[in-house]
Specification:
heterodimer; A: alpha/beta; six-stranded mixed sheet; four-stranded antiparallel sheet; 9 helices; B: mainly alpha
């Protein structure tokens, strides 16, 4: 079966001051797959995906999205990339001054030419998909983490993106909500062909829904492969991480 | 050479240089922000709905505090003039005396300081919180320009609010002054109003104050948006940004008050 490359990271180097967080990271993400980026905290997983939407720019290396090198795009040229490539932030980052429905309505109003009324009506319909319809008129600070995250996912999906970046989507969620989010990510890929890149520590998510996984360690790719590759690797560092053991060869 | 042997005057220069660089960075940052704001007008890429929302939040909600300040400011002008007016029986000049200072100086200045405290500080805190909680990044990721969506509406609303509030304060301060004149000096309000319609005051005096209000609005708008956007370091960072905004706006208002007064004559 031939696979189509959607995203290609090529030798990405990114340093913050003297600390080189990413030191030559390269891998491909195929179209339509659920791709997980795993690794210890502070290893640069979030940093890496922020490069895709122009929130960070690499010091060296190239980023290819659908055959286009985007790592040097300015804000204006990033616009179409961002419409194609949505992101759900770790802390949801809903706009506190707007209701949940207005949050979801905002991209509809700005990019789909809907009026405020139309966009709010459409937003409420979309909140239904994430089971948040009765919270449309509430403000984000009034809601719990899990609820905010679901609204954030609804907002990210408004523009029908081809790629969705999830930054720790199940962290701080209860187990049931977490599995619901997993299910949603899997469905996006299976039914709509959306490519998901998920940054996560959540072992049960990783081994339930991932098509392929990359593990970052000390600024490099430690292992890239399927769930089975990860389960059967002889690499002690990967083993320690995916089994969540305190003792082992891993340097934190 | 041990560190404490570094000549003291060198340290003074280093401190002065650091302070100068900080001021230059702020001024430069505000200049760039002004350029970016103006760029959004050609062609217009501004969120109209946000302008109305901010005008309500900044303008309408500021009315009570501006009304109280203006009424008492007018009253104070008359209280201060009372001794002289009584001594020289210059009741006819009371309107001119109170009106001249109020329209050209006191109403725009005090309104600007009130708006800086109420609206500017609020604006910096809100933008700063949005920056430290990544809400601004979220906006960019949704392919929405934060300058056109957040900053320009706030800037326009602050300038418009200050202009309208100054007009409002002018009227209320004179109203307050007229009635204080009646209570304190038994000067009939009609005599008071004649004092500034008799040719000693004209539209130029009102325009002078209103021009200042626009200049002050630009200062508050730029400072509050700049410090909000430049916030780093979580909750303490937001505190520092608000603090810097209040100080910078007040200093900017006084310096530019002097400059504008000088230029307008």
């Amino acid at each position: 079966m031939s696979v189509e490359t959607g995203i290609r990271f090529q030798n990405i180097v990114k340093a913050f001051g003297p600390k080189r967080v990413l030191n030559g990271v390269s891998f491909d993400v195929h179209k339509g797959e659920v791709f997980f980026i795993i690794g210890a905290s502070g290893v640069g997983k979030s940093v890496l995906i922020k490069h895709l939407v122009g929130l960070l720019y690499p010091d060296e290396g190239e980023i290819w999205l659908d055959g286009e090198e985007i790592s040097k795009f300015d804000e204006v040229r990033m616009g179409p990339v961002r419409k194609k490539c949505a992101m759900v932030f770790q802390h949801s980052t809903l706009f506190d001054s707007m209701t949940c429905a207005e949050n979801v309505a905002l991209p509809l109003r700005k990019h789909k030419g809907l009026t405020l009324k139309e966009s709010v009506a459409e937003a409420k319909r979309r909140l239904h998909v994430v089971h948040m319809q009765e919270f449309g008129d509430r403000y984000p600070p009034e809601l719990g983490d899990g609820m905010r995250k679901r609204v954030a996912i609804a907002r990210a999906l408004t523009l029908e993106p081809e790629y969705v970046l999830f930054d720790e989507p199940t962290t701080s969620l209860d187990p049931v909500s977490a599995r619901r989010v997993d299910k949603l990510i899997r469905e996006l890929s299976d039914t709509l062909g959306v490519t998901s890149i998920v940054v996560s520590h959540d072992l049960s998510s990783i081994f339930t829904i991932a098509d392929r996984i990359v593990m970052l360690y000390k600024g490099h790719v430690r292992l890239l492969g399927t769930r089975d590759d990860f389960k059967h690797t002889p690499d002690g560092v990967v083993n320690q991480f995916i089994n969540g053991r305190a003792q082992g060869p891993m340097d934190l | 050479m041990p560190e404490d042997a570094i000549p003291r005057h060198t340290q003074v220069f280093a401190a002065a240089g650091t302070a100068f660089l900080r001021v230059a960075t702020t001024a430069g940052g505000m200049g760039i922000l002004l350029f970016r704001i103006l760029a959004r007008f050609f062609p217009p890429r501004i969120d109209g709905g946000e302008i109305w929302k901010n005008l309500y939040k900044m303008g309408v909600k500021s009315l009570p505090i501006v009304a109280i300040t203006a009424l008492f400011t007018g009253a104070i002008m008359v209280v201060q003039a009372a001794t002289i007016v009584k001594r020289y029986s210059a009741e006819g000049l009371l309107g001119w005396g109170a009106g001249f200072g109020t329209l050209r100086e006191i109403a725009p200045l005090l309104t600007a300081l009130m708006i800086s405290g109420r609206v500017g500080a609020n604006n910096t805190a809100e933008l700063g919180t949005m920056v430290v909680t990544e809400q601004l990044d979220a906006l960019r990721v949704l392919a929405i320009d934060p300058i056109g969506f957040l900053i320009v509406p706030r800037f326009v609303s602050i300038v418009a609010t200050l202009f309208m509030m100054t007009l409002f304060a002018d009227a209320l301060a004179l109203f307050g002054a007229a009635h204080t004149g009646k209570a304190l000096l038994n000067v009939d309000p009609v005599t008071f109003y004649n004092g500034f319609t008799a040719g000693l005051l004209d539209f130029g005096d009102v325009a002078n104050g209103l021009t200042k209000s626009v200049v002050f609005g630009v200062v508050i708008g730029l400072a509050s948006c700049h410090f909000g956007l430049a916030t780093t370091g979580g909750a303490p960072g937001v505190g520092r940004a608000v603090n810097a905004q209040v100080v910078a706006s007040a200093a900017g208002i006084f310096v530019l008050d002097y400059v504008t007064s000088f230029i307008l004559g």
